[in-house]
Amino acid sequence: MKLLILGATGRVGSHLVKNALQDNHHVTVLVRTPEKIQIEHHNLTVVQGNVLNKESIEQAMHGADVVMSALNTDGGTTLTESMPFIIDAMKKEGVKRVITIGTAGILQSRVSPELLRYQSSESKRKITRAAEEHHKVYELLEQSGLDWTIVCPTYLPDGERLGNYRTERDLLPVDGSQISVPDTADFAYSLLQSGDFIKARVGIAY
Question: How does pLDDT run across 27-85, given as a tens digit for each residue?
Fold first, then answer.
């Protein structure tokens, strides 16, 4: 399988790259700073560019079967500015499947089901800017016609790979308070071989 992995130098993204190369998938990464990619592998293609540049996305998308995005907000509008380019490039290249890492803030609230968690009393966060960015991306994917899944971890320490966690469609598992970076990456990666959670958000926690 040929994967395009965005956010490959980040915490979750770097684990996605390792998992995919271990399974001998062909991996393309789009990065601003190629020196940050510490892995050398015959199946790894490093494209220098920026997710905020339409041409960079199109170049990196060429030949891909699936897109995996672990991009974060960068404290700004990286997510919402890049997603239209990603969606357009996917359609141009005929790629249907996209798996992204979001945040538990955009899952439905259990206490106020008509709201998302970040909009309700369920969320303890006072600053909602990152969740608002992820919310806009969720709306863009909903309208895209693509086969998308948004993996929505709650508190995300580096932690260890335990391989034992709970997932739930559109909701955070009851009393879920954290999930490690490696387990989040492992679950997102497992969706490559699974038809579960197509066109859905999925909450993940221990």
Answer: 999 999 999 998 999 999 999 999 999 999 999 999 999 999 999 987 889 999 999 99
Percent of the chain at pLDDT exceeding 70: 100
| Structure tokens that stand for 137 in this block | 């991306």
Count each helix (H run) and each strand (E run) in the chain, helices first.
Answer: 5, 8
Q: What is the pTM of this model?
A: 0.96
Rounded Cα distance between 151 and 99, Å, is 7
Query: Domain map of the chain by residue range?
Result: 2-205
* Alpha-carbon gap, residue 157 to 58, rounded angstroms: 33
Count other C-beta atoms under 10 Å from residue 94's C-beta.
Answer: 9
**Burial readout 32-50 (b: 16 or more C-beta within 10 A, e: otherwise):** eeeeebeeeeeebebbebe
CATH topology of domain 2-205: Rossmann fold (3.40.50)
Instruction: Give pairs for 90-94: CB < 8 Å, separation 24+.
Output: 90/61, 90/146, 91/146, 92/58, 92/61, 93/58, 93/61, 93/62, 93/63, 93/64
Spatial separation of the C-alpha atoms in residues 20 and 127, rounded to whole Å: 34
Strand order, beta sheet including 2-6: 44-48, 26-31, 2-6, 66-69, 97-101, 147-153, 200-205, 166-169
DSSP conformation class of 109: P
- Amino acid 178 reads Q
103: Cβ contacts below 8 Å, ≥ 6 apart = 118, 130, 131, 134, 152, 153
